[in-house]
Design a protein that fits this description.
The complex is a heterodimer of chains A (about 500) and B (about 500). With about 500 residues, chain A is α+β, with helices and mostly antiparallel strands. Helices cover about 40% and strands about 20% of the residues of chain A. Chain A has 3 domains: about 300 residues, no CATH class; about 110 residues, no CATH class; about 60 residues, Orthogonal Bundle (Arc Repressor Mutant, subunit A). Chain B has about 500 residues and is an alpha/beta fold. Chain B has a single domain, classed as Amidase signature (AS) domain (Amidase signature (AS) enzymes, Alpha-Beta Complex), CATH 3.90.1300.10. Chain B is about 40% helix and about 10% strand. Chain B is built from 17 helices and 11 strands. The model of chain B has no long low-confidence stretch (mean pLDDT about 95). The chains are: A alpha+beta (about 500), B alpha/beta (about 500). The interface between A and B is large, with 31 and 45 residues.
Amino acid sequence: MTDTLVPWDDVLAAYDPALGLEVHVELNTHTKMFCGCPAVFGGEPNTQVCPTCLGLPGAMPVVNGKAVESAIRIGLALNCEIAEWCRFARKNYFYPDMPKNFQTSQYDEPICFEGWIDVEVEGETFRVEIERAHMEEDTGKSLHVGGATGRIHGADYSLVDYNRAGIPLIEIVTKPIMGAGAKAPAVARAYVSQLRDLILALGVSEARMDQGNLRADVNLSLAPKGTGGLGTRTETKNVNSFRSVERAVRYEMQRHAAVLDAGGAIFQETRHWHEDTGVTTAGRAKSDADDYRYFPEPDLVPVAPSREWVEELRGTLPENPVERRARLQSDWGYTDLEMRDVVASGVLVPIEETVAAGASPQAARKWWSSELARRANDAGVDVVDLGVSPAQVAAVQALVDAGTVNDKLARQVFDGLIAGEGTPEEIVAARGLAVVSDDGALGAAVDAAIAANPDVADKIRDGKVAAAGALIGAVMKEMRGQADAARVRELVLEKLT
Amino acid sequence: MSAGADLTRRTAAQLADALAAGETTSVEVTQAHLDRIGTVDGAVHAFLHVDAEGALAQAAESDARRAAGRPAGALDGVPIAVKDVLATEGLPTTCGSKILEGWVPPYDATVVSRLRAAGLPILGKTNMDEFAMGSSTEHSAYGPTHNPWDLDRIPGGSGGGSAAAVAAFEAPLALGTDTGGSIRQPGAVTGTVGVKPTYGSVSRYGLVALANSLDQVGPVTRTVMDAALLHEVIGGHDPRDSTSITQSVPDLTDAVRRGATGDLTGVRIGVVKELGGDGYQDGVQARFAEAVDLMVANGAEVVEVSCPTFVHALATYYLILPAEASSNLAKFDAMRYGLRVLPEGIDSPSAEDVMRATRDAGFGDEVKRRIILGTYALSSGYYDAYYGQAQKVRTLISRDFDAAFQQADVLVSPTAPTTAFKLGEKLDDPIAMYLNDLATIPANLSGVPGISVPGGLAEEDGLPMGVQILAPTMADDRVYRVGAALETLLADQWGGPLLDRAPALNGAS
């Protein structure tokens, strides 16, 4: 079934969107939230488990102090208040990938609350208010075998891997973001992207969206324009790239508008985002029947971070994002427009790392902001998930600087990197991409070009040096771009003047 | 009397002395108890699982340590029975429920690790009400345990198996767990000693939780000294239990030695007005009054204290316990361990169908009753009125304790309102069953320690009753001191331990 969508401009003319984002961040602590099992990605199924994270009868949880520290640092970086005293709570519901059939989470006493973060969209700053950031544990992972959809319905059987069960999560929940209008999709994307930058700067998570370290749920509702109200919302789950966040918001706005225009009502439900087709489909209905019967976890004592500790952690925070962007722009000598472009493409951190790896700021920007961002867009992935690391970009630029390749050949090196063909040097060697500056080979090509273009050669002999370009072009064509253009020019002029 | 029978009549402290003196071996002691189990447990049914091979192997290791001059502790080689709610690596752990039939834990509860480290051979696992829900052990899915004083009567619950094993001389020591009286009430009705330590002073890691904020592991023995010796083995901080208290418990065996002089000079004994009167059997009240008089005659001062909110303790308990239990028991879903029942009439059942069918078949009625109660009490819209309110009353009960302990060093009451009733008598009346725990529940709600010591036989039925002694949090030494004093004074009156008057069981000499 295909949803009816209202044209974008018509949505904006009739409705005001309200956005809300719930982002789950998987922490990179060595051990899980409530036990000593390693909290690392991968591993053979069910090898990183113990009585506690398997929920065996009698096993008990113990809070991971490092996870509490990370939660507080995230909260402080988001300008939150840090609770003087808070508790864990049980969220009770049955699901096979949840070992205890309750998730140990936090309910009405989150460790961090009442914060904000400023995000920039096309030069405009939006303040996103943070309602809360709380600690919880991840569930296991179900693999539904058989059936067409990979979902539980229609599957022949399901397997569960509990390696992920108990990995520490921080859930960051915004207050409703109102007034973004046409920029709502971009604001959503910018928020998640800048939140990711912050998480990376804090060093508390790998924050890879493609690996599920950072997962976004998008809440959206529409209200008739100018009424200032809040409509019924839908929650689109696990939108796992910046680009998808933007697309999902836009899609849901257009779909909601169609339902409302037709006099229908939006059901409060979860929606599944389909990356491939760019649509959402109905999931589970949210209703009063969802009663998680929260109550304070009786196996854990309250978490009461001392004010001294909180202030000590405040001292470990990275620079705030606005100041950081200003500093980097000044250090790198980017124009306002260039900087805005860099931030919008989500390549600030990669550029910083590329510069740190030795490339010039302009070179780093050239590759990330145009070349790689364009390729990522074509491939429908986030640029950071393209498969090219900042160190590799710096290595490619070093080859350009050394004259081994030119920009055009460098693009072919990127092709090789994305295809996983090895290091930039290996790719240059394997693909035979090095620039030819050997006078013997070039001289022969220049002679051939002169012989093939006598008229042009005559013009140059007559002193019209500008005509040399045509001969250089002919040589480059002959050499399939792999000639050192400056040396070709010198040879042409040597031979004809 | 055979040598083996002689060994089973000894207290743990006496066995420890005999082992230390080289008069016997752990293998002999363990074998004697296994023989006794073989003789009487058909009638008593205190055990769900007996591990003769494992116990004898541990006994042989103990003897080797003694021979090498390196005993692991005072109780090294003295065998013990363990309530089936504690996880034991390699030994089945069912919690008295069908839903865990066949489950063998891959790990030991902390208290079990401590038993092993201290060299106590584990005889087996004892019967209990399913998931510790009950006061008679009749709710065990594997059939009831019988009271050694009268096989037609209940041994108390939920830890009727541990109490009966000790009362029937099948084990010198046992571990129990006490959520609302499950150590103390069986102690009272079987003429044995049971201690509920201060909440948090004995690790709960590996105790299959009934109600996490109320549960506590403790000793089940025939003498107060044996309880203290066992308590010192299992107590102390455990980093695996976040609710475990970091400070150490006071010296308990020393407290018993002081108490055993029988001198109670200067000890203020508070009789709790609300834990007596209506609902308490005459013979139980009479023996209790005599025990108080005896203590006063030996130097104690008696004061009557009032704890007005105790009348709400039962209602509070039956909101908090089912709420926590309903969540704890959710993990029994057939997905990872234990029973798995496929629903009938469904060709291709979903995980949910299997969960439903398994929980329907695997849980008994009392467990289902409490899951439903707890689910209701935690439901949105009812939470504040039930669970939230119960937590507030709980605070008030603790305040009543605080005020009472301003006036008295220990509080005393009958442990249970009646002596052992007949099997089946209260099975159809949950409220009548719940009333058995009237006097023991307040201690669980506030976390204070308590002991039940045998107080004699009720006039009207000749069955044992218990005297409960409660002390402030972390003052476990007080219950041992006063308990030991009362034990000594009563034994002097009786001319020996109360259990000497229990009828001989089938096959016993």
